[in-house]
Amino acid sequence: xxxxxxxxxxxxxxxxxxxxxxxxxxxxxxxxxxxxxxxxxxxxxxxxxxxxxxxxxxxxxxxxxxxxxxxxxxxxxxxxxxxxxxxxxxxxxxxxxxxxxxxxxxxxxxxxxxxxxxxxxxxxxxxxxxxxxxxxxxxxxxxxxxxxxxxxxxxxxxxxxxxxxxxxxxxxxxxxxxxxxxxxxxxxxxxxxxxxxxxxxxxxxxxxxxxxxxxxxxxxxxxxxxxxxxxxxxxxxxxxxxxxxxxxxxxxxxxxxxxxxxxxxxxxxxxxxxxxxxxxxxxxxxxxxxxxxxxxxxxxxxxxxxxxxxxxxxxxxxxxxxxxxxxxxxxxxxxxxxxxxxxxxxxxxxxxxxxxxxxxxxxxxxxxxxxxxxxxxxxxxxxxxxxxxxxxxxxxxxxxxxxxxxxxxxxxxxxxxxxxxxxxxxxxxxxxxxxxxxxxxxxxxxxxxxxxxxxxxxxxxxxxxxxxxxxxxxxxxxxxxxxxxxxxxxxxxxxxxxxxxxxxxxxxxxxxxxxxxxxxxxxxxxxxxxxxxxxxxxxxxxxxxxxxxxxxxxxxxxxxxxxxxxxxxxxxxxxxxxxxxxxxxxxxxxxxxxxxxxxxxxxxxxxxxxxxxxxxxxxxxxxxxxxxxxxxxxxxxxxxxxxxxxxxxxxxxxxxxxxxxxxxxxxxxxxxxxxxxxxxxxxxxxxxx
Length: 689
Hints:
Blueprint: H1 6-19, H2 42-47, H3 69-75, H4 85-97, H5 104-109, H6 127-133, H7 143-146, E1 174-175, H8 180-187, H9 194-202, E2 205-206, E3 210-213, E4 220-223, E5 232-233, H10 253-260, E6 302-303, E7 306-307, E8 339-340, H11 349-357, E9 363-369, H12 370-374, H13 378-381, E10 386-387, E11 393-398, H14 402-415, E12 420-425, H15 430-433, H16 445-456, E13 463-468, H17 479-488, E14 492-496, H18 510-519, E15 525-529, H19 535-543, E16 548-553, H20 555-559, H21 563-569, H22 577-595, H23 599-616, H24 644-649, H25 654-665
Helix pairs in contact: 9-14, 11-22, 14-16, 17-18, 19-21, 22-23, 23-25
């Protein structure tokens, strides 16, 4: 029997395919003669880290044209050229002179004469011109009117038409604002740190701090996290090459009285082990810590702007430091509490407030850099804000040197309301690591010891530490810390089961976390972190180990914040698209209350909503999976969901995220673009359409 040539068979197959009806569907049951390989089983997909979505919901991946460089620039995928300071000043001046920037006092009252600055005010007082260019009101009701409170944004509110008269003044439920008086003291480096300075000297550490002048305000601010500056042993004064006296090391009668007022039993010299860091390779430090340090006089009648009486001229004894014992500190029981991790950008106050409504027990603010806090930067202090619903709240700071961190702990302890303070020693970001902070500290165990000892001595609140397994892959260091960190002053340690070099390329090493927990003292809380994405993950790691107090939930909460409800109810919640939309509505409402209901507040809320949607699109509904629950490392295939809204929520296109935001916050402004910070899912232009 003659066999047709291969080319003839191909032409015949192509002809048959061209003449086949468009609505014809492939045979779901392949015959024995069918040469196509069988589809992979769910188990094979799981082994390849691919989400096993049911075949009925699979679809071909959408075809996206590769954007040109110019289109990428417009869409925000490529960063624009860096603007000069002159350009920023010019644009800011033009924006201030625009009628769209209505004076706050005028906008709140609607009266052009309400501003106390009058004609010298930098903002517009033309109410008619502002109303003529103001965008139309958004659909819905003002979030403050819903609370039966008067809106503080007045005419500028995007829901102005829903305002009511004779409502009670709006209540502020947010805590930890930065006062102007404290900010000015920080700007001028006049804020005093008596406890931190005394403890630094008591531990034998020398304070070497660089002072730099701001180009616009000429106010001197401390740059503690500069890599050129370090804390070293008290030794030869030649190591001070900065040409300025040490800051906040003065000791006089006012400091003595301040130390007496701190309470607690004094700790004598030999009761605290002296920190002996390794000598620097660049500069040798000779002698011991007994060398005298120069004392510079300060005004004994003021301490952080407060009058302090002084009756004695004797110098303060720095060998008596009021260090609270661990048993005297406030105790927090972390065991089996649902802990929302501090999350950069997305872990803002509205998101934490949302997670509280869904079942989170412990919340923590976003990581704040010590240097920026010490400089009084309002944007950094905003990360410490706390809502009244956060009943168990912590703040997280990050710094490179003991004097920097200790002063920041004392500053935050004095000015903020929180239940515990966490020091981040695991941040893998390059800009943080290059300054010697974050996970870079894992290579410097003696500096970790100095930071924890100095910081824990200046506060009565629990001090916790967050670390990774190691800096380099295969060189684990966390197990060498857990046995000593409690004696240094930490109440809990959080271990992320990945190295800095690993980032998120592999699964978290929970076996190593358990090994660390076994070496920890009984009184030290060990908190595990990494890949918690379901209640079964939680049960396996918390209930399966008696030494792990709880688990910190990070990306799992970003992708599906209802994970806290799942853990408390012990179920896999097959949440509907309408229920997910209600959660987004709650976030928007909380965002408008936090950032404001005016145009700027609406767009700020939209920006953070879009940042969050870049994570939620990774969630795969329970009803679509052959294997439940979903794992955090699964890559979702292209699929269509059970309804149009659920399919839209599963899209990884920035344009679809913008469409979701328009369902909640109205149309985006003309020329609006968006690209997520992590840029891992930005494939499409952000404009609608």
